[in-house]
Amino acid sequence: MRAAETVLTDANFDKTTFRQSDIHQVSKLLNAERIDAALIADFQLRNLELSQPKDFIVYHVKSEVGFHYLHQKYKHLIEPLYQRLSLMQASGRLSQLRQQFKLQAPEQLKPMPMPTELTAAAAARPGLTGANGNGRLWQLINTVYGDTVAGVNTLASNWPRALNALLEDKAHMVVGVYKNQFDNELLYSKKRIAMDDALYLFASDRTKKQAILAGQESHTVCYSGNEELHKLLPDSLSFYRANTSLDCFALLDLNRIEGVIDYKYNLPDWVTTPYHRSRLREPLPLYVAFKNNELGAQLKAHLDRALESKLSPRFISENSNTIR
Predict the structure, then answer these.
(1) Is 212 exposed, middle or buried (0-12, 13-18, 19+ CB in 10 A)?
(2) For the purposes of burial, counting CB atoms within 10 Å of the CB of 228, is it exposed (0-12), middle (13-18) or buried (19 or more)?
(3) Is the pLDDT of residue 111 over 80?
(4) Which of 68, 86, 115, 140 is deepest in the core (most CB within 10 A)?
(5) Which domains does the chain have, with CATH numbers?
(6) CA end-to-end span of the chain, whole Å?
(7) Mean of the pLDDT values across residues 186-202?
(8) What's phi and psi for 130, nearest 5 deg?
């Protein structure tokens, strides 16, 4: 069985495939988006004529050992040939010849190696992205990337810290975000991975709640999520962005602010008297965000493929349920 067929068989690939021996035709099919991918050898990769090379991601899926073949009557040359090739490899001569005769793949088409370990960051959400590494979304990320890397580490705190971890290359992705949640130019998964909960306004009494909804200027509202949250209320209000939900509720209990925008599951344990609340927004779909670079695009493509084919519909539907 040929190497390409072995790769497809080992991966249990069950989509439509066909064989094309002319690499120039493969280039045309890729440029015209008539095919989604091409499985080719490295020497064929050098001959690809892509109109937009940066739009393509190259994966190294398998290594095959290559051999030189000699006629039986030249078998006495095997040992000296092997020694000479070994010396050329050690001295760097083979590398020089590859460069001289342009046998290297173009820089933009060189495979991007997957990290040995991945780190996923998120805001802590009960049942989805727990601080202890438990949760349905952590399980999903482990399912998607578990066969590709040695391990997946999780960081769950709050949105500012999760975003900073991604931007500072301390994390490879942020899990459970809204589409275009951050001002930074990031890549987002094509499909949703779950639904969040509804957002509420919490206030200490009914009068303050009504005043906030009416946009009374003397009132201040605290939130700890993304900047878009304050758009759920009138612009005439004052807004304060805290690091955590607990910071907001502590300020509310101290009468330093009049209201908090947050989820029901973030209510503090110390509450003895229920807050007055008003529903501000229905549940929204959640996605995964990546840095807008080559590795981010590769990780996104891997997740998109998994969401479309690798994961069972039942697994996805379980993670699409709204948090309650």
Answers:
(1) buried
(2) middle
(3) no
(4) 140
(5) 3-109 (no CATH), 117-196+285-319 (3.40.190.10), 199-281 (3.40.190.10)
(6) 52
(7) 92
(8) -75, 155
